[in-house]
């Protein structure tokens, strides 16, 4: 209480309770604070945040790759799409994660205990004796029911008695401005799971959003051809870039998982064969 009523008068009861939650945390060790210095710790945090490799560490599953895209020119004809005379550019530093690794991590996490592994239908019996189908969640949609039926109709190997479930993948990619002023921007690809309730997915603090890749912005047209590209050509190049990156994301591991499923020990201790399936993909026009 002395801490709350001394110094600044802006410390609320909730702030006091939050301080107490830190003190009683099992990871808190009072001995670590004997030589505490605010300035020193602040510098440690600043150095950590200034580390360019910080957000995309390899131990967190992030990879850096490169992709190659063709760079055609308006009013210039080539024999075919495979014409060796078409200039190509290599786009470096494509930061991405394995989709199969994300699926494994999420289904092994405690959050999967709230997932709907088996889809179902919902109905409403109205007061005038009508029966209406209720469409509310991805896991109760006709598409989920169809996908569930499809994976369970696939042939099984001898001894394979594992429960089969659908990992409902819902993806977004959208270039976004990071500030009201200037041109700082990001072009992320991120993933949600339709097995999870939309009410959970809609909470920013739920951790339901999983970043898959960050698409670099490349504008080298003028370096190759000596002139700026038209808006249409710029859109075309962006489309080629995102398609090349999706070839990177849909790697052999994902294709194998799509065909045969992945054995995952889920949070409830049950081993299930999980089949990834794409349910939604929201993207801007340049990404089509």
Identify the notable features of this structure and list them briefly:
288 residues; alpha+beta; 24% strand
Explained architecture:
It is a single chain. The chain is of the alpha+beta class and 288 residues long. The chain has one domain. It is built from nine helices and eleven strands. The protein has helices at residues 2-5, 13-23, 38-50, 99-108, 142-152, 198-201, 221-225, 231-249, 252-260, and strands at residues 62-70, 88-97, 122-125, 131-134, 163-173, 176-177, 185-186, 188-193, 210-214, 262-265, 271-283. Strand 10 (262-265) and strand 11 form a beta hairpin. It is extended, with a radius of gyration of 25 Å. 17% of the residues are buried. The mean pLDDT is 83.
Task: Summarize, please.
Pfam families: Plavaka. With 288 residues, this protein is α+β, with helices and mostly antiparallel strands.
Query: Which strand order does the major sheet show?
Result: 1-2-9-8-5-11-10
What overall geometry do the principal axes of the alpha carbons give?
extended
Chain-averaged pLDDT: 83
In terms of DSSP E residues, the strand content is 15-25%
Radius of gyration: 25 Å
Structural class: alpha+beta
How many runs of DSSP E, i.e. beta strands?
A: 11
Number of helices: 9
Q: Spell out the helices and strands N to C.
A: HHHEEHEEHEEEEHEHHHEE
Largest sheet: 7 strands, mixed
InterPro entries: Plavaka
């Amino acid at each position: 209480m002395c801490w709350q009523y001394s110094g600044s008068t802006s410390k609320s009861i909730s702030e006091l309770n939050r301080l107490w939650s830190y003190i009683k945390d099992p990871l808190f060790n009072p001995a670590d604070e004997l030589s505490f210095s605010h300035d020193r710790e602040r510098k440690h945090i600043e150095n950590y945040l200034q580390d360019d490799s910080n957000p995309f560490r390899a131990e967190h599953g992030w990879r850096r790759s490169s992709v190659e895209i063709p760079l055609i020119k308006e009013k210039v004809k080539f024999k075919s799409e495979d014409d060796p005379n078409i200039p190509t550019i290599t786009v470096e530093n494509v930061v991405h994660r394995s989709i199969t690794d994300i699926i494994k991590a999420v289904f092994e996490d405690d959050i999967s205990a709230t997932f709907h592994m088996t889809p179902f239908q919902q109905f409403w019996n109205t007061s005038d004796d009508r029966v209406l189908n209720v469409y509310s969640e991805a896991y109760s949609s006709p598409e989920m029911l169809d996908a569930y039926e499809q994976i369970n109709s696939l042939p099984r190997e001898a001894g394979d008695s594992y429960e089969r479930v659908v990992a409902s993948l819902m993806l977004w990619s959208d270039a976004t401005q990071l500030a009201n002023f200037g041109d700082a921007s990001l072009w992320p690809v991120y993933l949600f799971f339709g097995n999870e309730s939309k009410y959970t997915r809609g909470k920013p603090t739920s951790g339901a959003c999983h970043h898959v890749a960050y698409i670099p912005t490349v504008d080298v047209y003028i370096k190759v051809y000596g002139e700026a590209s038209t808006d249409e050509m710029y859109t075309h190049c962006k489309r080629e870039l995102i398609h090349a990156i999706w070839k990177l994301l849909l790697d052999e591991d994902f294709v194998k998982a799509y065909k045969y499923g992945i054995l995952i020990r889920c949070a409830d201790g049950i081993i299930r064969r999980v089949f990834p399936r794409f349910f939604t993909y929201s993207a801007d026009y340049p990404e089509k």
